[in-house]
UniProtKB/TrEMBL annotation:
PANTHER family: ALANINE RACEMASE, ALANINE RACEMASE, CATABOLIC-RELATED. This is Alanine racemase. Its EC number is 5.1.1.1. One of its GO terms (cellular component) is cytosol. The keyword GTP-binding does not apply. Its cofactor is pyridoxal 5'-phosphate. It comes from Desulfoprunum benzoelyticum.
Length: 383
């Protein structure tokens, strides 16, 4: 009889290193200095790292400001006991304005209907609520155009129960240190605020991870640390001249275990479509994961994994729940051996940026794919 206490877990496991997360937050905080607040971006389930768990770890480091995309994420954090300021960056449905008062949340605004709904809710609760205004200075996404800002601010000033606590914008190319748009967008941001005169004394923030690491002159009162918190570099690099970036540590690793080892003769086709055919007697290790687990078909015949501290190339098309790797040059591979898809094994390492290169994407997407499609465990240090 099987005990009710028996725990069955997936062989595919994403490990989140709390020690590395703490290290990254502390490093970024030290780099920006005591006069600059750090908003920890935990949207997208903390880039696949687990939103509530990540926020709790950061709270233990002294983090008091968090950024999420949607109201439901902010409410989830509050219900999980996360204190401090929680910013909702993507707006909200006007009928939900009261939730910002009930859960003490900070709205980012860019629509007249939103500030009117917040004003009404604040008056009903006998309170005031501070909002942050989103400006589009060249990103081409959400926000008011600079010319619209004075009238919008005046409307906020005229509404009861609401006040302008901050102004923000976003940099479209801060991950590229030589991009001409970055100083142009920042200049537009500063000039737009300056035209408001001495009437605005709130928080200014425009720096994402790229500007946090590469453009210290753009830190303003607060930076918004996203991918850097999780140990990746906005430009995919790790040069020694990047300040905080040179010392970041990857937080996520992704492992599985060998399901079968097979010896195939030369001329054997592997997986759907036989996109790879062996040219010699070949030892294949079959792994119990595929695109359902975020290990996408784009990695077919491109990706590599680590087994026994050595690289093994992916062979053939990746399936929904299976993929195959060539271990001919790695002796002694057996069923149950640990396989590292992302992370370090012995002296070898596969990074999220390397995987992103094989997939034709960015590290952000790799982390979200792996983290949100697999069982996560949180650890402290190496395992």
């Amino acid at each position: 009889m099987v005990s009710e206490q028996t725990q069955v877990v997936s062989r595919n496991q994403v490990r989140i290193d709390r020690r590395a997360l703490r290290h990254n937050f502390n490093t970024i905080t030290e780099e920006v200095g005591p006069g600059v607040a750090v908003m920890a971006m935990v949207k997208g389930d903390a880039y696949g790292h687990g939103m509530t768990e990540t926020a709790a770890v950061l709270a233990g480091c002294g983090c008091r400001i968090y950024g999420v995309a949607e109201l439901v994420e902010a409410v989830t954090l509050r219900r999980a006991g996360i204190g401090g300021d929680i910013f909702v960056l993507l707006g909200f449905v006007a009928e939900e304005a009261e939730q910002f008062l009930l859960y003490d949340l900070t709205p980012v605004v860019f629509l007249h209907q939103d500030i009117e709904a917040l004003s009404q809710a604040a008056v009903q609760h006998g309170r005031e609520i501070g909002v942050h205004l989103k400006i589009d200075c060249g990103m081409g996404r959400l926000g008011l155009l600079p010319a619209e800002v004075p009238a919008f601010k005046q409307r906020i000033d005229n509404l009861p129960g609401i006040f302008l606590a901050g102004i923000m914008a976003h940099l479209p190319e801060a991950d590229q240190r030589q991009a001409a748009s970055t100083p142009q967008v920042f200049s537009c941001f500063q000039e737009t605020i300056d035209r408001l005169g001495a009437g605005f004394t709130g928080v200014r923030h425009i720096a994402n991870s790229g500007a946090t690491m590469y453009f210290p002159g753009m830190h303003c009162n607060m930076v918004r640390a996203g991918i850097s918190l999780y140990g990746c570099y906005p430009d995919g690099g790790a040069s020694d001249d990047l300040g905080a970036g040179a010392r970041l540590q990857p937080v996520m690793s992704f492992v599985t275990r060998v399901a079968q080892v097979r010896d195939l003769p030369a001329g054997s086709g592997i997986s759907y479509g036989h996109t790879y055919v062996t040219t010699r007697p070949t030892t294949i290790a079959v792994l119990p994961l595929g695109y359902e687990d975020g290990y996408l078909r784009d990695l077919s015949n491109r990706g590599e994994v680590l087994i026994h501290g050595r690289r093994a190339p992916v062979r053939g098309r990746i399936c929904m729940n299976l993929c195959m790797v060539d271990v001919t040059e790695i002796p002694g591979v057996a069923v149950g051996d640990e396989v590292v898809l992302l992370g370090r094994q012995d002296d070898a390492e596969i990074t999220a940026d390397e995987i992103a290169g094989w997939m034709g994407t960015i590290s952000y997407e790799v982390l979200c794919l792996f983290g949100n499609n697999n069982s996560r465990i949180h650890i402290d240090g190496k395992r």
